Amino acid sequence: MVPVIAILLATGACWGSGGVYRGHGMALHGELKYGPGFAHVDYVDPNAFKGGEMRLGRKGTFDTLNPFILKGVGAPYSGSLPYDSLLGTTHDEPFSAYGLLAKTIAVPDDNSWVLFELRPEARWHDGQPITPEDVIFSFELLRTQGHPFYRDYYAAVDTVIKVGDHGVKFAFGGEFNRELPLIVGQFGILPRHYWRDRDFGATTLEPPLGSGPYRIAALEAGRFVTFARVADYWGRELPINRGRYNFDRFHIDFYRDETVLIEALKAGEVDVRQETSAKAWATAYDIAAVAAGRLILQEFPHQRPTGMKAFWFNTRRGNLADRRVRQALAYAFDFEWTNATLFHGLFARTTSFFSNSELASVGLPSGRELEILEEYRGRIPAAVFTTPYQPPATNGSGQIRANLRTARNLLAAAGWRVVDNALVNTASGERLALEFMLHNSAAEQYVIPMIGNLERLGVAATVRTVDRAQYQQRVHQYDFDIVVNNRGQSESPGNEQTHFWHSSAAQEPGSSNLSGIADPVVDELIGRLIAAPGRAELVATTRALDRVLLHHHLVIPHWHARALRTVRWDKFGQPAATPPFLRNRFFVTTWWHDAERAARLEANN
After folding, report:
1. How far apart are the first and last CA of the chain?
2. 521 and 490 co-located in one domain
3. Domain boundary at 195, 223, 254, which?
4. Which residues, in sequence order, are CB contacts of 229 under 8 Å at separation 6+?
5. Is residue 47 in some structural domain?
6. Is the pLDDT of residue 45 over 50?
7. Does residue 5 register a pLDDT over 80?
8. Is 77 left (phi over 0), alpha (psi -120 to 50) or beta?
9. Could you tell me the residue range of the domain that residue 12 belongs to?
10. How confident is the model at residue 28 (pLDDT cuts 50, 70, 90)?
11. Each residue of 328-340: pLDDT tens digit?
12. In 146-250, which ranges are continuous DSSP H helix?
């Protein structure tokens, strides 16, 4: 165990008796970027204009304003904009947090507890003060009645108690966990006086009481939701908030079809969009407004891990339990042809669960990563040490006969053979049948060609596109064979990996362990990752975990872009600096309405 004093140094922080750190923020590893007297973060304009509206579009639907439970489809931003947390994180540090509801943070050198001192000026939107009792109530409510994620994420918290008039102390049990003081400061605090007489486990369309920069002002289920800025928001002048939350309103319309959404943008009914479709980026915006500079296409490069977008296997299904079967099926996906034909060559192939970052495993293991993996030799696939992970590749011609031949050999070794053009199990006589379940019909363009290749192997493959609510329900119950999913990752992975990969989450409904992996080595690596004493050890352990997961063949990797692609009407101002760890939809919190640009745009349209 490395004392916290070695890793939580911060300019202006102090250590009290008994080796207790006290400060305005905390860094997981290294030093805080911003000292106790900082005015604002570097990637905002503190003088940004306050006012105006941003209109957004979203494909899909929603049926609840309570996104903290498993039931229902939550409205976007309904769990963030109306609520404050104890700490606020930055986008230009791997993992640092600064006081939001909390004025100060105190942590002992053994990391056994954390004490937050609440700001006495913090208020709910109805004017009532935010109290330690609200924090304690929120934590217990989320852990007992909230989404299963909270129960897993905060499992190591033993007790939460009030200390003095404004203090809340979280005491931890179990093994040393470096992240816990930071992550217990991240959940949204809920008002006890509002929720104690309401059913927290039910979906609701009643705009809830919050404390954050916005409140929900209007909505129609499945059609639109409007957030209005709280003019007297108690935290508007905090350094972590200065220059952010500049729009008076965010209005989000919902569309059933992505093509219709794009047309609404081009018609001026939507102001800004993060474009994730390479085809749309390359072809949909060849219009006069773009040529004239009124509608702007802009890329924002970043260093944030892009995660793993992929076909995800449900290994709980008996026909997908064998790693060799999953590995074989990957040879039926032709990324090179897909990228060139469908996506104009705009994507890079994903080869890591932590792609686009220093956390990704590459080549063969070496150095500290190899030392870690050697401890598990004999308990992990031998290929981890001998063969760099690389998804099957093709020449892009669409002819993948050699790959299918490799797939047949792997399937034969796993006990499958072709009988009358059908791939059957030699022991049970059962045919291999697979369903791709989608919630976005746009994915059919690359799923259908893969189904054709699978049929050449004798697999009975089908695709089924369902609405988002049904998709979410079936995924929560693990009622699927293969889905398209994007597992995002942070630049400082930790406790959330338990929810992603740990065996304790494999059978828990609603967990993020989609694949159902239950491997003791993975469990142990997650524990080591959480307890990593410094950034170097965290990186080496993450790479080791990444490599083991990849060689389990839980997914067929898709692709990623190393920049956020945005399309916007020229009516907004932007900060001069872009943070390296850019989050999706960053424009919601750091851009502002530019009246001069908006007037010019209106005059020219």
Report:
1. 64
2. yes
3. 195
4. 50, 213, 214, 245, 247, 248, 249
5. no
6. yes
7. no
8. left
9. 4-38+61-195
10. confident
11. 999 999 999 999 9
12. 148-153, 180-183, 192-195
Q: What percent of the chain has pLDDT over 90?
A: 80
* Strand ranges across the sheet with 14-16: 14-16, 20-23, 102-108, 113-118, 167-172, 157-163
Distances (CA, A) of 336 to 313, 345, 399: 21, 8, 11
DSSP 508-522: STT-S-TT----HHH
pLDDT computed for residue 449 by the predictor: 96
DSSP characters over 322-380? SHHHHHHHGGG--HHHHHHHHSTT--EE--STTTTSTTS--SS--HHHHHHHHTTBTTB
For 222-272, how does the pLDDT look when each residue is reduced to its tens digit (9 = 90+)?
999 999 999 999 999 999 999 999 999 999 999 988 999 999 999 999 999
**Domain check: are 342 and 220 in the same one?**
no
Q: Which residues contact 515 (CB under 8 A, 6 or more apart)?
A: 312, 313, 314, 315, 552, 554, 555
CB 110 within 8 A of CB 4: yes
Q: DSSP 3-state assignment of 5?
A: helix
- Is residue 8 pLDDT above 60, yes or no? no
Query: Do 510 and 379 lie in a common domain?
Result: yes
CATH of the domain at 160: 3.40.190.10
Among 140, 160, 195, residue at a domain's last position? 195
- Taking a C-beta distance cutoff of 8 angstroms, is the pair 518, 503 a contact? yes
- Residue 387 belongs to some domain of the structure: yes
Q: What residue has token string 């509608």?
A: 295
- At 467-498, the pLDDT tens digits run 988 999 999 999 999 999 999 898 889 888 99
Q: Whole-number mean pLDDT of the chain? A: 92
Per-residue confidence (pLDDT) for residue 329, from 0 to 100: 98
Separation between Cα atoms, residue 347 and residue 84, nearest integer Å: 36
Non-local (6+) Cβ contacts of 109 within 8 A are 3, 4, 5, 18, 19, 20, 21
DSSP-assigned letter for residue 161: E
**CA atoms lying within 13 Å on the CB side of residue 575:** 24
In a domain, 147, yes or no: yes
